[in-house]
Structures are given as C-alpha cells and as structure tokens.
Predict the structure.
Amino acid sequence: MKLTTITQLTLDGVTQGNGGPTVEDRECGFERGGWARGAGDDSTRDHIAATFERADAFLLGRRTYDILLEFWGTIEDLKLQPIGVALNTRPKYVASRTLREPAWANTAVLGDDLFAAVTELKASGRGELQVHGSSRLIQWLLEKDLVDEMELIIVPVVLGQGARLFADSGRDIAMNLVDSRTDSKGVMIQTYRPAGRPDYATF
C-alpha cells in the first residue's frame, strides 16, 4: 500500500488545533485553535472529502484517533457525510502503547514493533494507507523512510505558537513537487514525494 500523509498546517508550520476546541488545542498554553475552520473554498472542501473517500485504510496517532472518533465516529449527522462514511467503514490502525480496547469499529492497535507493523501494512497489497493529522507519527515515519507521498494543505495564516509538523532537529529529506494548486481563498494544496537526501552546495 502507498503510505500518504495529509496535513493541514499554517505558513509557519503549525498543525496543532486546526479544527476547534479540543483538549489538544489548550495543551502547553496553546490558545489559538480553530485556525482552519472556514478556510478554503468549496473546491478545497470537496478535495478533502474525496481524499478520505479514496483511502483504503487509515493509520493514526492516538490523539488524532480520539479527535476523529469524537466527531466522525459518534455524531450521527457526521457519520453520514463522505468523510464520516470513509472513517467508519475502512480499517483504522492506531499507533499507541496505551489504547487497549478501541471503541471504534474496524480499529486495530499496532503492537510495540511499530516499524514492523507499518512495513507489513505497506506490503499487504495495493491501495492507499492514509495518515491524517498525527504530526508526531509523521515525524517518526519520515525518520524511518516509510512515507511515499506527503500532501500539505497550507492555510495562509501565521500562528506564532503551537506544535509544528517538522521537528526542530530531524532527518534531512529532498522532496519532489508532484502537484500544486491554490484555491480562491489562498489555501494551497501541495503534494510531494520524498527523493532521498538533499544536495548541499559546496564553496
């Protein structure tokens, strides 16, 4: 399976609290949650829904899993929306050491050997394994060279605080841009594929 990450982030790389008032929004004094609400036009919203619909399975960190469950897995109206249908009917794999008995149907908790589990999922067949949110998990996947494609949905705002997608210190990775679009509200959707290590100029 192709492993694709899909991330909403600000111009300064913040991913925390994109949707609204959750516990994560207020972690470490963070007070600027909800910055992605209302961002983007209908074409971007349609694109996001279509992205969920094309997924064959989802790989999620524990916090993102809990946030998605709270909305798409429990609110009846949202369950009927395309994103809700996809999340409720497709397999969900959670990277967690604390989740024991998941309440959401079609959920499997990956074991302690996360690298082996994700490698096995990627080798299990065709289709797309999507990672939404889960910035810490994405950092780990990048370090382990397990990401095939990254989609960044960039909202034109500078937040000035909050957890960011890329760690302050981590692996260096060259990226090839394979698709780019900007909607009428300035939201950019950029798709990249990892391409080994960057080339560094010498003088």
